[in-house]
Amino acid sequence: MTQPQTHPLWPRPDAERYRRAGHWSGRTFGAHLRDWAARHPRRTALVDGERRWTYADLDAEADRLARGLRHLGLRKGDRVVVQLPNRAEFVQLWFALQRLGAVPVHAMPGHRRAEIGHLIRISGAVACVIPDRHARFDHRGLLRHILTDQTGSGPLRHVIVLGDPGAHRDFTRFEDLRADAAPLPLESGQEDPDAADLALLLHSGGTTGLPKLIPRTHDDYAYNARAAAEICGLDEHSVYLAVLPIAFNFTFACPGVLGTLAAGGTVVVSPDPSPQTAFTLIERERVSITSLSPPLVPHWMDEGARRAADLDSLTVLQVGGARLADDVARRLGPALEVTLQQVFGMAEGLICLTRLDDPEDLICTSQGRPISPDDEVLIVGPDGRPVADGLPGELLTRGPYTPRGYYRAPEHNRVAFTPDGFYRSGDLVRRLPSGHLVVVGRIKDQINRGGEKIAAPEVEEHLLTHPLITQAALVGVPDETWGERSVAFLVCAGPAPGTRELALFLQERGLARYKAPDQVVGITAMPLTPVGKIDKKLLAGTLAPT
Questions:
Q1: Which of 68, 162, 248, 385, CA to CA, is 20 to 30 A from 376?
Q2: Residues 234 and 374 in one domain
Q3: Where is each AMP-binding enzyme C-terminal domain found (predicted)?
């Protein structure tokens, strides 16, 4: 029995077309893992430090954890917020939830009380999986605070802790989920009607406050990963290093973890993104492909120049999440002796990749072209009409892995999607004659700080609770390191608080650290547009890029 509809579905003619084209395989992720394990049971699937799992091991571990979750009371369709750092347990748990028919809700390691509470409420999660401590932060205390706040936990019944639950005796140890190794009943090799069901929920960058949830089905998300893997040339000899947070769509499915496993390759989990850690893993595990965000690129090039590391196995270095400067792109390939692949996309769907055999100039100056022949792309002007190739406009898209609406957000969907199902991305792009896209900016009130999307209205709402701040405008301005940095323009009753004071204030309000302004500018009055809105373009123009 399929789950109750919580989001717009693809129209039947489109769904049938995607099935006929072979994009949608009609298999759930629980079934996919069973198939992969049967195909190459002894191949190494997953590596985390000294720990290694074959495909057969990963399949059996998914069964063990799924049985433990079922014993805890979880059932098909239950949503589970997963906030784990880069650990093998993220992958094991993810497939266990898929095998159970439950729905993982991806949370970032840096999310704090405001974001986690919101994800729990909007998804209706019955469980949350956290580390005990990560990056010197105690996640157990965060969940205890949410549970004691009657408005914050909703139907949440279980907190599962990877590590030590400490004094929280009602929390469940992750290790205690492990039950017997008997496989769950699952027929292999047949189409599964549940493949059209909700498989996971990704969080959006948000432009109008707290993030929305993006519903991804088994059919569309598997195609997302598989199509990207084919373009990257992944096969059973490929070794993917997960450097960025594993819960990111980029790291998990572009092609990332899922694409590598679908190809029969090996996923290596990096506990942190530093080049020192990553280079050691590349040497030891013979990594062939990995993914970075632009702020990490200079550090990797510097480390490559300082250290005589054996990186011969690394052939493809993906960079995405934000626009990579053209001059850095030109230096990256020669510096690390790799093929650069630029990646542009969104958790809402569309993924663009430069091809490995594209001319160097195209690789260094564009953000790629869509991965599917059935990706539909419109570039429109302010009047909503298509513009000619070469001219900037807003990117609208729909296709076999771009959902037709956000989860439980009917009012927002009427704004974010056109009546005929195109997603309004808010990205300003130019299309080249080759079909490649060049990202030139955004029209949404959102800041892309090194791949972390910050919704300005959300932060402004928190800033306005500060006793000294009477008006606030958060603006993104160009930055060489982060792509964009956030600047808070403040009108205050007295001297404007500094960046450190504001960071502590926002932290106390439960906001993720990366959302704190990088710079604060005190002003006497906000400039307004002719219609009475704060003129953020004028504010941004008063600052020079760094």
A1: 248
A2: yes
A3: 458-533
